[in-house]
Automatic annotation (TrEMBL):
<dbReference type="Pfam" id="PF00679">
    <property type="entry name" value="EFG_C"/>
</dbReference>
<keyword id="KW-1003">Cell membrane</keyword>
<dbReference type="InterPro" id="IPR004161">
    <property type="entry name" value="EFTu-like_2"/>
</dbReference>
<dbReference type="Pfam" id="PF00009">
    <property type="entry name" value="GTP_EFTU"/>
</dbReference>
<dbReference type="InterPro" id="IPR027417">
    <property type="entry name" value="P-loop_NTPase"/>
</dbReference>
<dbReference type="GO" id="GO:0005886">
    <property type="term" value="C:plasma membrane"/>
</dbReference>
<feature type="domain" description="Tr-type G">
    <location>
        <begin position="4"/>
        <end position="186"/>
    </location>
</feature>
<dbReference type="InterPro" id="IPR009000">
    <property type="entry name" value="Transl_B-barrel_sf"/>
</dbReference>
<keyword id="KW-0472">Membrane</keyword>
<dbReference type="InterPro" id="IPR031157">
    <property type="entry name" value="G_TR_CS"/>
</dbReference>
<feature type="binding site">
    <location>
        <begin position="133"/>
        <end position="136"/>
    </location>
    <ligand>
        <name>GTP</name>
    </ligand>
</feature>
<dbReference type="InterPro" id="IPR035654">
    <property type="entry name" value="LepA_IV"/>
</dbReference>
<dbReference type="InterPro" id="IPR005225">
    <property type="entry name" value="Small_GTP-bd"/>
</dbReference>
<protein>
    <recommendedName>
        <fullName>Elongation factor 4</fullName>
        <ecNumber>3.6.5.n1</ecNumber>
    </recommendedName>
</protein>
<dbReference type="Pfam" id="PF03144">
    <property type="entry name" value="GTP_EFTU_D2"/>
</dbReference>
<dbReference type="GO" id="GO:0045727">
    <property type="term" value="P:positive regulation of translation"/>
</dbReference>
<dbReference type="GO" id="GO:0003746">
    <property type="term" value="F:translation elongation factor activity"/>
</dbReference>
Amino acid sequence: TDQAHIRNFCIIAHIDHGKSTLADRLLEFTGTVSKRELLEQTLDQMELEREKGITIKAQAVRMKYTAQDGQEYELNLIDTPGHVDFAYEVSRSLAACEGALLVIDATQGVEAQTLANLYLALEADLTIIPVINKIDLPSADPEKVKQEVEDVIGLPKEECILASAKEGIGTVDILEAVVKQIPPPAGDPAGPLRALVFDSHYDAYKGVIAYVRVVDGVLHAEEKVVMMATGSATEVLEAGFFHPRLVSSGELTTGEVGYIATGFKNVKDCRVGDTVTVPGALGKAQPLPGYQPAKSMVFAGLYPVASEDYPELRDALERLKLNDAALYYEPETSQALGFGFRCGFLGLLHMEIIQERLEREYNLDILATAPSVAYLVTKTDGEVIEVDNPSEMPSAGEVEKIEEPFMDISIFTPSRYIGTIMDLVTTRRGIYVDLKYIESERVLLTYKMPLAELIVDFYDQLKSRTQGYASLDYNFAGYEASDLIKLDILVNGVAVDALSLIVHRDKAYYQGRALVEKLRGLIPRQLFEVPIQAAIGSRVIARETVKAMRKDVLAKCYGGDITRKRKLLEKQKEGKKRMKMVGSVEIPQEAFMAVLSLG
Ligand code: GTP
């Protein structure tokens, strides 16, 4: 297609504002897919995505649209991940576009990710088309949302397109706006090849499939190419586009979006953000801006419940890693849990997804330790080390300074919740930055807060304290020194490495006490008495005791009711599933996560 008739765009939105539904409507209207095919959910392919209702992997679909000017256009819709953990992937997807539909729910208005995504789109210099969706709902208030678009986003309210993705209202207006307002791709068709990789996935038959946007030149099948950042070279096995399934077309011209089958066996050879070029252009063509390796922010130990499953866990992680360059892992040994892996994730959602896939797709029973952040520790001898496992924190005497990652966080909320949110953030060591009124009853609060406090149940707390009304977004702000110490937990007199944690000195006593209390409730009674202690260095600061089991526990509650007895036994069996023998004491999975609910 000639460049003037190409439009590359994406849809950005806060979660649940209707991004996928609108994408479906566009695909259906342009005849790209039929209604029946849509039922099979074309854009969100992974089962997990569907269940969690979120989009994880960016994808691209090509549509043909004959506009009201009588001309036929090639529209490439690039799907973007909807969750803040994947902000880097979002920004790469945006870099492949010239425009964005900014979808806003007419019943909700502007939310945290509406703005976060908007900022990313503005950074990428995209033309923004505001779409107010769900106008079919009785509680929709399009006029109010229009005003928000003008006040908060800074676009004239007349530019808003009113739509219902569900009912198909506004579809034509949206497609016309895409054609008229979004500029065609610039780029030099005669220049040396440069194509941006904005996503990739591993396919068992074709090797790594890279999703690319050709910026300059033409990309041909059967051509030798090189990845500028990684230096990996290969021959393009196939080139084409998504319609929505792969259609091999032999080439991708300047400005086009599509895929290449690379033959690479691992996505790390073909990272998101890298530039594809031909060997002859190396040294002449500049790499496209923006390549940066994904950075793990959250770390946890993953251990097989049954130690003989260790090789299977290793294989499963290796397989997942093939398709997920952001997943990091290395072998780790815990005195308490045996052999396992230290894993690094983009954020909590990423961690949850990996855990679920290990369990569901690989049938593994795994035990996860509480998530931790990576600390920068300056030792008294001047050496600086990164510590992402609390049990590996050097003893207090060896530590000069500990720095921890801080996040800039923004919270959108009805103003009636300001008090409770301030309260929550303050107990999490948050530092107030700003409060801005979006309209008379809604505010944008900004804070700086340690990531370690954010990953401990913060989002759930925020949601429950605001009846689900508040929305949250966060970005890495940098490392800062904090007064942190290591808290050890001793079970039956033995320190359990997988239970140690790093806490702020001011909160150590409170957290130590709360944690042993919680553990007392979680660790089942044994045949002997089990003391649980929290200690800082050699100083015990809290103690609880799990009383010894009475041997007649079953006989006692039996009382003639057979079903009750069976229930009790079944319950015990269930509880057994995620238990780990630590020394002579059984510790359940929940115990390792107890720290998450301390607040
Ligand atoms: P993520 O993929 O999680 O980011 O969500 P999304 O933005 O893609 O939202 P999705 O399209 O899944 O829509 C969220 C919910 O809103 C679904 O239950 C849709 O059926 C519903 N929905 C979307 N558009 C409309 C609309 O125009 N009207 C009404 N009434 N409901 C809609």
